[in-house]
Amino acid sequence: xxxxxxxxxxxxxxxxxxxxxxxxxxxxxxxxxxxxxxxxxxxxxxxxxxxxxxxxxxxxxxxxxxxxxxxxxxxxxxxxxxxxxxxxxxxxxxxxxxxxxxxxxxxxxxxxxxxxxxxxxxxxxxxxxxxxxxxxxxxxxxxxxxxxxxxxxxxxxxxxxxxxxxxxxxxxxxxxxxxxxxxxxxxxxxxxxxxxxxxxxxxxxxxxxxxxxxxxxxxxxxxxxxxxxxxxxxxxxxxxxxxxxxxxxxxxxxxxxxxxxxxxxxxxxxxxxxxxxxxxxxxxxxxxxxxxxxxxxxxxxxxxxxxxxxxxxxxxxxxxxxxxxxxxxxxxxxxxxxxxxxxxxxxxxxxxxxxxxxxxxxxxxxxxxxxxxxxxxxxxxxxxxxxxxxxxxxxxxxxxxxxxxxxxxxxxxxxxxxxxxxxxxxxxxxxxxxxxxxxxxxxxxxxxxxxxxxxxxxxxxxxxxxxxxxxxxxxxxxxxxxxxxxxxxxxxxxxxxxxxxxxxxxxxxxx
Length: 511
Prior knowledge:
Keywords: Ubl conjugation pathway
Distance between the termini: 100 Å
Strand content: 5-15%
Strand order of the largest sheet: 2-1-5-3-4
Pfam families: HECT
Number of domains: 4
Shape: extended
Radius of gyration: 39 Å
Helix content: 40-55%
Structural class: alpha/beta
GO molecular function, one term: ubiquitin-protein transferase activity
Protein name: HECT domain-containing protein
Number of strands: 11
InterPro entries: HECT_dom, Hect_E3_ubiquitin_ligase
């Protein structure tokens, strides 16, 4: 019944609309007679079409004559416009301002082009701010600090504008309602609103990288690892070619039947204890695995996972991965088929999905297989978050403690007095510069008792020992290395020091 009543209402509305439309048009007497005829026909047709439904409604269908419609057409127009005006919400105008944040409290001139570049890389400089026209002074304050977060440490700030045809900056006096977006826009027009700190200068050496910044990655053709393209050139300066890499340098916990939860938790407690007390961290454990333990699996990117996987497999397998990523190998190549068999591939590999398949291998080996160990570790290693609160700071830890030849040499602190001591120091640096990764770690264990960097200084002192008494002596408690200054050549120093590093047993008699 409700449906029939609704259709009846529709019929009446259509009839009234047709009548009103006809009445609104200017008409001559001839046109009026023709319109009346047309209107009557339209009315009759509507009544015929909807006659079964009109009977169910108590109120009769409204029939408006042409004369009445014409007489009330202005009222109809007024009613329609008024109703539309009431239903339409007035939009709030949004204002856009050019904000330019300065770094120094005493700056009173518009920055030069070079200064603008420095400010831009530090997260300052020019940015756009958006606020409604009727926004308050408090909303403007929140917007300015959100746009330039470093202003939280400024001890207040002030607004300035550039004087016409001049580089001089002049403070903007507050308006009737204080500093509002509307007032500042009226004051500077299309110009910039300069924001200057009041009490403390802002740090421009701290380069700000937006959280949502996306830099494309590409792999290094020498080591087959992925790097953001803005870091790739810097990496090439320290890149170790793939052929020179030992392979299998990252590990994940291995699930064994005789290793239960208590044992896995004990290992995690040792890791936490070692870092808290000695700043030692086992860098051989896969970065991706530890990131998943600390920050969740969703924090592990494909680039990070692939890098860990290449460090996890052997050198020949890493070579195959590099060819897959470079798409320089055919899917039916015997070497690649053997690689897929090793990792129990269940998919048909093509040129289109080869990268995806290798990523799946990495996910299985680095994250899925040691998941039980990760569950045992998570709660314990989470206490390390006080030292690194996000993934970036954790990866920075890895980069800072992994030894390289140049890093170790930079730790040396010495004060040679004689020419022989200066020559010995030069021989020692040359010796360390020529060590491979494994021997470099052994050198660090001999001098600091750690295979990673746990100190900022290694003190080099000199002795005058000769004959059988001549040998380098390390004091690991104080990170001191005693070097005889009586070597006649670099070859003598290298021979004696390599004999120590190659020895299976070291005598530690200084505590």
